[in-house]
Amino acid sequence: DEFNPRFFAAQIRGARQGGADGFLFWHTASRYTMLEGSWRRIRDLYPFPRATSARAAATPPAP
């Protein structure tokens, strides 16, 4: 299955590297069993550092 701990970790790392304040996973049918099984393995990737949030807020978006 493509939705595994590696997939979720890559999504969170991408959000952090992009300067996001956090992340959100959403499923149209509210089925999150695939995320629940991965949560313990990706726990070290959050919360996002405050410096990342402050830097993102101070940086204007690219055109």
Keywords:
mainly alpha, 48% helix, 63 residues
Give an overview of the whole structure.
The protein is an all-alpha fold and 63 residues long. It has one domain. It is 48% helix and 0% strand. The chain has four helices and no strands. It is elongated and about 35 Å long.
Question: Summarize this, please?
Answer:
By secondary structure, this protein is mainly α. It has four helices and no strands. Helices cover 48% and strands 0% of the residues.
**Number of helices, where a helix is a run of at least 4 consecutive DSSP H or I residues:** 4
Number of strands: 0
- Estimate nothing, just give the exact number of structural domains: 1
Silhouette: elongated
**Span between termini:** 36 Å
Contiguous uncertain segments of 5+ residues: none
Strand percentage: under 5%
Mean pLDDT equals: 80
Task: Give the % helix.
Answer: 40-55%
Quaternary structure of the protein: single chain
Largest sheet: number of strands, sense, barrel closure: none
Please provide the ordered H/E string of secondary-structure elements: HHHH
Walk me through the topology.
Blueprint: H1 5-17, H2 33-36, H3 39-42, H4 50-58
